[in-house]
């Protein structure tokens, strides 16, 4: 998948997430996706390459970077807690959707219970 397709899949995925909002605050080249004011996904172009930047569990982030050539440390973010996904041959639609959902759940889990739009331990998980 190319970078534009990657961004479309990731952006479309957020439309289904309760409480998710899109904000364009920095400049027109950055899209911030938030839940209750907390960022869980960013999209931009790194010199000519469309990318998606997602929050990830530190242990999982390290494993993803080792397993997939198209997943690198988070661009302009904490390298331990964020990953950058770019278009290429190692990521597919299913993985992109899982990574977006994981990022969303991580951020929701950090919110006070009264502000959580879903239960992060069960939302989007199959029984």
UniProtKB/TrEMBL annotation:
Gene3D superfamilies, A to Z: 3.90.1150.30
Protein name, as recorded:
Cytoplasmic protein
Extract the signal peptide range: none
Q: Which taxonomic lineage is given here? A: Bacteria, Bacillati, Actinomycetota, Actinomycetes, Streptosporangiales
**Which InterPro entries does the record associate with it?**
YjbR, YjbR-like_sf, YjbR/MT2646/Rv2570-like
Q: Which domain of life is it from?
A: Bacteria
- Chain coiled-coil ranges: none
């Amino acid at each position: 998948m190319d970078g534009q397709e990657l961004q479309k899949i990731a952006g479309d995925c957020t439309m289904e997430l309760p409480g998710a909002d899109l904000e364009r605050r920095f400049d027109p080249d950055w899209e911030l996706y938030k839940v209750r004011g907390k960022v869980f996904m960013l999209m931009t172009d790194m010199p000519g390459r469309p990318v998606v930047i997602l929050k990830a569990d530190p242990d999982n982030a390290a494993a993803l970077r080792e397993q997939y050539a198209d997943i690198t440390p988070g661009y302009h973010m904490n390298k331990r807690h964020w990953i950058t996904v770019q278009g290429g041959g190692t990521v597919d639609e299913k993985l992109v959707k899982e990574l977006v959902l994981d990022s969303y759940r991580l951020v929701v889990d950090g919110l006070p219970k009264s502000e959580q739009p879903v239960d992060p331990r069960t939302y989007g998980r199959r029984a």
